[in-house]
Request: fold
Amino acid sequence: MMPVFAQTARVKGIVLDKNNLAVSDVNVTASDLVTQTNENGYYTLFVPANKKITLVFTHISLKKITVSLSLKTNEQYEFNLLMSDQQEQMGEVIVTTNEKKNTTGVTIISPEMIRKIPGANAGIENILKTLAGVNSNNELSTQYAVRGGNYDENLVYVNEIEVFRPFLIRSGQQEGLSFTNTDLVKNVDFSAGGFQAKFGDKLSSVLDITYRVPTNFAATMEASFLGGSLAIDAVSKNKKWSAITGVRYRNNSLLVNSQDTETNYTPSFVDIQTNINYKASAKWQWSFLGNISQNKYDYSPLTKQTKFGTIDNPITLSVFYEGQEKDKYDTYFGALKTTYKPTENFTLKLITSLFHTQEQEHFDILAQYRLGNVDANIGSDTYGDVNYTAGIGSQYSHARNDLDAFIANIELKGIHDWNDNVLEWGVKYTRESIRDRIIEWEVIDSAGFSVSAPNLDFLKKDEPYTIYSGPLAPYQNIRAKNFNNINRFSGYIQWSKKSSIGNSEIWYNAGMRFHNWQVSGNAINGDNQFVFSPRAQFAIKPDWEKDMVFKISGGVYHQPPFYRELRAADGVVQPNVKAQQSIHIVLSNDYSFKMWSRPFKLISEVYYKTLTDVNTYTIDNVRIRYAASNNAKAYAQGIDVRLNGEFVPGTESWFSFGYLKTEENSADRGFIARPTDQRLKFGALFQDYMPNIPSVKLYLNMVYNTGLPGGSPAYADPYLYQNRLNDYRRVDVGFSKVFIDGANLKPNSTLFKNFKELALGFEIFNLFNNQNAITNTFVRDVYSKNEYAIPNYMTTRVFNIKLSAKL
Reply:
């Protein structure tokens, strides 16, 4: 028997017959290596790596199948097949490896897994939220926080082009569609910290996505109660032109209507995205990436009833609404990329992109509330009814916020590759033009007494027993007009090399970035600012019997302020906000091993970040409001652990655990928890299938987060009022019946003969119907001078049906 830790690879799969039933006792051989399929048709075989081998599948009553393939060291390759009694089958497969990415702290996510795993907002971000260092307590949002950072600290690239999201979105239910269309994706790489200098200037993470280049015609379709999508691959006859185009529509009504607010909700989230490729010659290629997105959010709340309190003292808040909200977010994105490769060892890339967003946030909503005590006497005729009204009041919210932003980029990049050395460099110019008008105010009335002070002082007043004399003003009032331009110059250079120390393999990378920017406009002229960011990575794979890789990475990371970080709480732009700085170090270990004769990997990472020139902020749902000052320092520390492998033969699953502590010290007042201080995180992504019917599959997505700091009044001083939301618990499960999957399951009807894939799924979101709160609404009882925190709950249990097909 060949040692499992020698230079080997692994082939696995499931064998079915023409009736789509598992075939046991199939002999699988490669030279003198032999195994058999079990009662579920599953097999696994370790084979020599880095050489061409021939697999032979034989069965006493079925025709022989042979396949030739070549695998890299430690490569895991899945080969499923259908054995027939009609004819012998032969083929050849060439497989490549992701060894380089495995040594640079990058998590590789399968596009197939992204498309199959259920979630209220299914897609790439849905999978990221199961990773240890990634946190979110909002299933309606695609935004996420990484290792103590916030939603604005994450880089997202598609085909090496940085992409952006709308500016004004306040809540997850307004977001609609993520930029990334999962039907177009080929590769997904994610780094939670310590990333290389070639990636841009953010503090927390990098999501690097590559769209596929089609080789023949294909069409992918999906439809569910939440919307639908269509993607088409097209290729010219001469193979020089190719294009992949996707259209998506999403409607969150199914999810929003499960919340405790009764509404008239008519959203419309639509986008069209295309990636066009032209191969001018063997050395010169062109591509265009374009996206048009229109998100309309029309919202008319009617009533809301929330029950809270204790068993002994239950309380009900009843709210009656008038008015509506009309939001609109139109984004247009286009990028042209050309790649020129004059020699095998030298590549030049020129990338230009334009992003334009037009956004409006208009609402006038009157909320009249009744706060009452509930009859808790079991057996009472009025059990469960409100028997005493403790407070009544009203709140009127108004906004006329409009934003128009235009961002232009041009970037030149070079790659030199020689003798296991890679030198990469790039320079980039960015012009950001922002036109922003903010008119937002709120009036609060409680039993006829107007509340005008936006702080906690009103709790000291003795209304209504003592007359309060003061100006009658809105509870909150923000008015500003900002017309600003930001010019940025940035660049990087980095060097990577693969080498060895004795029989141990090593990889290292060293590089630096620079960034220069200046804010102008609105009769302001900010300072010219410059930052320099060195970064490095080192990995070693010792010549041990156990397959381990040790890595250390980090450096100095800067985040020059984007427009939202320049805008203070009063809406006015502060042009001289500095770049936040983080010194980040990550220590990690990847341990690959065999358990139950199947591959597993245990990934452990310990990290520490010290931050200076921190721009403090508050989070309300997904809206971040910055102080636009650099008067704080902070730190983040933690550990992430993920066990990944085949818990069920032939499937990939993982379990992750994360511990995080992040605190900030503002104006030397002492350290307190930051808004993203997510102490404990547990996530699981699990796939399974029925042993006797492998075409029936199960997908499980589970997240548990301890409560975030939050839910306190927006006007409260966090040093005087610290509160945490309840723990976030959510389980989404999906069941799928695969009728056709191309390789194994063939169509039995001429009606579906052109289908390569066909599946029907049933999904249950929030399986255990947990009540998760995203924020609190604060209601004041004037007579008792109490203020109640009323939780704003997220979605309850929801059922969905999904049909997917591929031609």
Helices lie at 99-102, 111-116, 124-128, 253-256, 563-566. Residues 111-116 form the longest helix (6 residues).
